[in-house]
Fold this protein.
Amino acid sequence: MTILPPAFHLTTVETRHAVRIEITGDLDYDTADLLLEEATARLSARPGLEDLRLHCAGIGMVDSMGLSILLMIGRRANAARVRLHLDDRPAQLDRLLSITGTLEYFTAQPATGAAATHRDTAESPAAATATERRTRASGPTGPDATT
């Protein structure tokens, strides 16, 4: 007997300051664009939106395209100053995010008073300078670090 994966389905629920998109099925090459379109439409239609919640409990398999779309949604939410939440992540999604080094990107807490939840925003000049100092102080790393 062959067990077929569940059909891909999105259910969107809106409240005053949040949108919740429930995802059911595999998030892959064939379906990921549907999630991107839905999330982008909600971000565009709701200028006062504070939170975009992706309910992930019903997600099956996630391939590289699915991960790419999650990252793209994160960037678009960040640009719109909306907090992105990946709620009720199944173990296989957490494992994928952990292996790819993106778990912290999706789960990092914003700085006090900041709307953004991601670290891919442009740094202030002062923050960039501090980052450069820490990088220089730690010294070179990698294959050319023998000098």
In short: Residues 112-147 have pLDDT under 50 and may be disordered. The beta strands are 9-14, 18-27, 51-62, 83-87. The first strand starts at residue 9 and ends at 14.
